[in-house]
Write a structure and sequence with these properties.
Blueprint lengths: L2 H30 L6 E4 L6 E2 L11 E9 L2 E6 L24
Antiparallel strand pairs: 1-2, 1-3, 3-4
Length: about 100
Amino acid sequence: MDSSSTNQRRMRSATVALGGMGLLAATLVACGSSDEPDKRCASRATLDHLNSKECRSGGGGSTYYGGRVVNGKVTGGSFEDKTAPAVTRGGLGKGTSGSGGG
């Protein structure tokens, strides 16, 4: 085996390794970045962590944003979604202000 064959094999291995690392990095970035906040279902009265179906219509739970679960209780977050817009504005034609032009 000559030295050029060995060099090609080394370069091919390095290319595969670097390509794999790039793919891994892209996957981790895509999985780690989310616009949706961490949320879970909990009881407002007891702060018990509940099954997610308890937060659907008719259930006794409320959505708890952020924080974590420690010993079955939610902590470090709030029942208020801090990422939701605080003010909603109407679009065209949704106001009552008017001036009679003419």
